[in-house]
Automatic annotation (TrEMBL):
InterPro entries given in the database record: MATE_fam, MdtK-like, YsiQ
Name by which UniProt lists this protein: MATE family efflux transporter
Topology versus the membrane: Multi-pass membrane protein
Superkingdom of origin: Bacteria
Keywords on record: Cell membrane, Membrane, Transmembrane, Transmembrane helix, Transport
């Protein structure tokens, strides 16, 4: 079957990896170009993007739950149900995105204050957050469209669109920031406009692909009459996943707020480190996303043994790539960091944090591979129950205790993040093995209720 050929770990992973690297490249180009404006501008972009990432997780409430179910239904041979689920996902996510956009257009300044953004950079943040935040409806719809398309096994089309948008974004940044070809030098305002345009254009292209992703072409009238009965099963899978992801993003916002208390230099250093760490994170998350699609599909087919083993394969490959990538950054650490900033304090701090990153990234990979595997079989509630307490008590708690109270600064922040990743990773590993020993997911309530019931029934020992 053609779909079976698409649903291979390698074939799913590499387009996702390229797409995510290009998304990372957009963020890097923003940080690099904005760094030519000022370190304050970099701090605004970094702080704002932490908030926007937290908002994007809300969209996952629908998009990710639908994505898992789409792959599962396709594995079970029910393309009609997959189509209906995808349409509901786009409509619901778009509605949430519209509400968020309106809140950002009229309340960006107040939100920046609530988040604890340093007062001296709030005026700069207000314009950036209102423009980029006002376009969150495009981010929401784009997220739903790309998730649905990827879960049909078509991971290449979103990649091609990302390539085009990456080129356009860099070009527009050059025009709007530096005033090339006679354009005015708009600085950070120009970065915001460029981001808004690229996200809107991405939606148009993704919608074109989406309409043909489920066999017969989807008519626009179908978006006006979604099958709302499907929303319940989407939310049953999606809400714990969204709560978990939202909690993680909010915990990162809390940590960023704590770093903001430490000072502008520390905040800028963390922003640069986020950019560099994304290099390793992107590779690991690509394997995790691919294995989630694969396991949901295999589970729909009833190929449970293969689904179980796929988690370990993704973890192994991902770990190797992540460690290699992190080691490469360490090898060229001086050249990479000084490319972003000449501040000697930030350079010295970032070099030390890169060494800590060598410990952090394997823990992240363990978490990502097993976490997405557990989610793919409907066990998202367990991951939520384990992850949220660890994120706040360990990661945020130690960031405050070690970083501020004991004066360790960014070292204390990283100590908390490292311990949090390994605690959650170890618990998820035990959970995955627990499912195997108990008959490979047979005892999970959501599965008995039919949320992700294997098409063939029974278990493969």
């Amino acid at each position: 079957m053609e779909l079976d050929k698409k649903m291979k770990l390698g074939r799913l992973t590499w387009p996702i990896m390229i797409e995510m690297f290009l998304a990372f490249a957009i963020g890097t180009s923003d940080t690099l170009m904005v760094s030519r404006i000022s370190d304050d501008a970099v701090a605004v972009v970094g702080f704002s993007n932490q908030f926007f990432n937290a908002v994007i997780v809300v969209f996952m409430l629908v998009a990710s739950g639908a994505g898992i179910l789409i792959a599962n239904r396709l594995g079970a041979g029910d393309a009609y149900a997959a189509r209906k689920l995808a349409i509901v996902s786009v409509v619901l996510t778009g509605a949430i995105g519209l509400v968020v956009s309106l809140l950002m257009v009229f309340g960006a300044g107040q939100i920046a204050g609530w988040l604890g953004m340093p007062p001296d950079i709030r005026p700069l943040a207000n314009d950036y957050m209102s423009i980029v935040g006002g376009g969150m409806i495009f981010t929401a719809i784009g997220n739903a469209l790309s998730t649905a398309v990827r879960n049909t096994g078509n991971t290449r089309s979103p990649m091609y669109i990302a390539i085009m948008m990456n080129v356009v974004h860099i070009f527009l940044n050059a025009l709007f920031i530096f005033g090339l070809l006679g354009f005015p030098k708009w600085g950070l305002f120009g970065v915001a406009l460029s981001t808004l345009f690229v996200r809107a254009a991405s939606v148009v292209l993704l919608l074109y692909v989406f309409r043909s992703a489920f066999g017969g072409r989807i008519g626009f009238r179908e978006f006006l009459r979604p099958d709302w009965s499907r929303s319940r099963e989407i939310l049953r899978i999606g809400w714990p996943l969204s709560m978990n992801g939202g909690s993680w993003q909010l915990s990162q916002l809390a940590i960023t707020g704590l770093i903001g208390v430490m000072g502008a230099q520390q905040l800028a250093a963390r922003t640069y480190m986020n950019t560099m760490e994304s290099f390793a994170f992107t590779i690991g998350w690509s394997f995790a996303m691919a294995v989630q699609i694969l396991i949901a599909y295999l589970f729909g087919q009833g190929k449970l043994r293969e689904a179980y083993r796929s988690a370990y394969r993704a973890m192994g490959y991902g770990m190797a790539f992540v460690l290699f990538n992190t080691a490469l950054m360490l090898l060229f650490r001086k050249q990479i960091i000084t490319f972003f900033t000449a501040d000697p304090w930030i350079v010295d701090m970032a070099i030390v944090l890169l060494w800590l990153n060598l410990i952090l990234q394997p823990g992240k990979m363990l978490n990502m591979a097993l976490g997405q595997s557990i989610v793919a079989v409907g066990d998202s509630r367990y991951m939520m129950k384990i992850s949220i307490p660890s994120q706040w008590l360990v990661s945020v708690g130690l960031a405050y205790l070690l970083g501020i109270r004991l004066g360790w600064g960014l070292y204390g922040v990283y100590a908390g993040m490292i311990l949090d990743e390994y605690i959650r990773g170890a618990v998820l590993y035990l959970r995955w093995r627990h499912h195997r020993k108990r008959g490979l997911f047979a005892d999970h309530g959501d599965l008995r209720a039919g949320a992700l019931a294997p098409a063939k029934g029974g278990l493969q020992a």
